Amino acid sequence: MLSGEQLRATVAAIAAEQEADGALPWFRGGRLDPWDSVEAAMALDVGGAHDQARAAYRWLAARQRSDGSWAAEYRDGVETAPGVESNHAGYLAVGLWHRWLRTGDEELIAELWPVVRRALDLVTRMQLPGGAVGWALRPDGTPDGTALLTGNASLFQALRCGVALAGLVGEPQPDWELAADDLGSALRTRPEAFADRSRYSMDWYYPVLGGALTGTAAAERLAEGWDRFVVPGLGARCVADRPWVTGAETCELALALVAAGQPDAALEQVAAMQHLRHEDGSYWTGYVYPDDARWPVERATWTAAAVVLAADALSGATAAAGLFADPGALPAAGTEGSPGTADWLPDGAGRGRA
């Protein structure tokens, strides 16, 4: 496992890329997409950088469109890819539920609840017959008929986090509950509802990471794809037929392994991808092993964030760890992390809500 000093450096490396206005891009001056920005904000909260995480969430909230969507990409605060993607709309709910579990920040939850409500209402409007959610909106405002498995597995988690937030603020959302039920059923029983992107590792492990598959079904799915995607000693491939391992996919696989009750295998994967670590605590995106070359030549905040979230899930260091360690059953707010495992966090930071 990474040392406390190493993990603190990784959180600091993420924080160093944040813009003065709160934007949390892939790297300073680079692109920002809502999903990856939320993942990076969660890592900041895990590491105790709560003010910076709050600023990142407020930056996103300020740029939500009236229909509940965000642009697919921003640079310097300007929309550079205006298309609407369902998984971008949904993921703020995951970040804010994580924030609640980690800090008990009632003020921010109340402030951003209308943003979450608009976003998840959009997601439910994009749901297709049979339960899957269209990946994008067409120019006429109707959902694209193509559904992507990884994005839908993320949306399953998002809808359930949204339902939890709705209970917290006292505004039940039965439509979200029904949408989550239908989506979960599609993820478990209707593979034909999703585009065939099985060569991508995310489509392999994300139904486990997002909580749609649990228990024996989760273990069986991870076992089925293991030899296709895992490169011993290096991590997980992004694409099955490419000799390229990536840090974020490896650590997300580790999160899925923790969720499936395989922490030793998860720890092995986090250890395997440490060849991507930079001396400042950030992480290179990937490695093409036949060429002994890092590619792309960038160190994105979301790769470092995946490392931090995997470390938290493995250690149980914070009260938010269960969001990924046991996604099949959303943890109750205010529960405590495991004592004695949070040496890299500020004093008392593992205790969650007071």
UniProtKB/TrEMBL annotation:
Residues 332-354 are annotated as: Disordered. It comes from the Bacteria. Gene3D superfamilies: 1.50.10.10. GO terms for biological process: carbohydrate metabolic process. This is Prenyltransferase and squalene oxidase repeat-containing protein. It comes from Geodermatophilus ruber.
